[in-house]
Amino acid sequence: MVMVYVPGGEFEMGSTDGDDDEQPVHTVTLASFWIDQTEVTNSQYQRCVADEACHPPAKAYSESRASYYGNGDYEGYPVIWVSWHQAEAYCRWAEARLPTEAEWEYAARGPESRSFPWGAEFNGTLLNYCDAGCPRNWADQSVDDGYADTAPVGSYPAGGSWCGAVDMAGNVWEWVADWYAIDYYGRSPNSNPRGPTSGPSRVIRGGSWSYPQKYARSAERNATHGGHMFGNVGFRCAASFP
């Protein structure tokens, strides 16, 4: 995996355009770190499984493909059907870690706190989200990227963030390190926050191929139990600097 460097700095975390758990908007300062340029792929995850450091995904298919994980045609696609615990194990095997929620949002938004990785306005051609090929009743019929579910990682370089990370909007939701709390932003430390000390759920970020544009916003927060696995959730790793 290629990692991109994210220079330390500060940004406004959260948004007044989303749900209550994105408020209050608050200034966060972060130390420098590295983050994976793309989501972890099937082939990369297979290496961890081969080393017996990771368990295989719960299912080997995707929404529109009977064979997905372990199929050479999809080696460059994001691994799915992995739990938070499996994602954490992979990152540890790769001598890295899951990014914190604040690190993930900063890598996506940058010092300017952009609404989307590429800028202030939504552009459906710059990500894999629920468009015309998506089998959901909320699909946006005005855009068709040709994918019924996941796309190869790095398919949307023009949608990359300020630090060079791609796929931070759409494709698959991404596990981050933090526990989830709906009120965390009201009590979060302003320097290198690491989330609540416990909770029933873990945070996922970035939206996915099966969700509409609202969920592709970089400030959007979602959460699910860390033991659950889905066909629209993957992950990327991070590492502290140096």
Report what the structure shows:
With 242 residues, this protein is an alpha+beta fold. The protein has a single domain (3-240), classed as paralog of FGE (formylglycine-generating enzyme) (Alpha-Beta Complex), CATH 3.90.1580. It has 3 helices and 9 strands.
Short description:
The chain has helices spanning 42-50, 84-93, 101-109, and strands spanning 3-6, 9-13, 26-30, 33-36, 173-179, 202-205, 222-224, 233-235, 238-240.
Q: What is the element layout, followed by pairings?
A:
Elements: E1 3-6, E2 9-13, E3 26-30, E4 33-36, H1 42-50, H2 84-93, H3 101-109, E5 173-179, E6 202-205, E7 222-224, E8 233-235, E9 238-240
Parallel strand pairs: 5-8
Antiparallel strand pairs: 1-4, 2-3, 4-9, 5-6, 6-7
- The outline comes out as globular
Please give the order of strands in the largest beta sheet.
7-6-5-8
CATH homologous superfamily classification: paralog of FGE (formylglycine-generating enzyme)
Number of strands: 9
Average pLDDT figure: 97
Beta content comes to 15-25%
Low-confidence stretches: none
Which second-level CATH architecture applies?
Alpha-Beta Complex
CATH topology: paralog of FGE (formylglycine-generating enzyme)
**Span between N and C termini?**
17 Å
Alpha carbon gyration radius: 17 Å
Order of helices and strands: EEEEHHHEEEEE
Kindly give the count of domains: 1
Structural class: alpha+beta
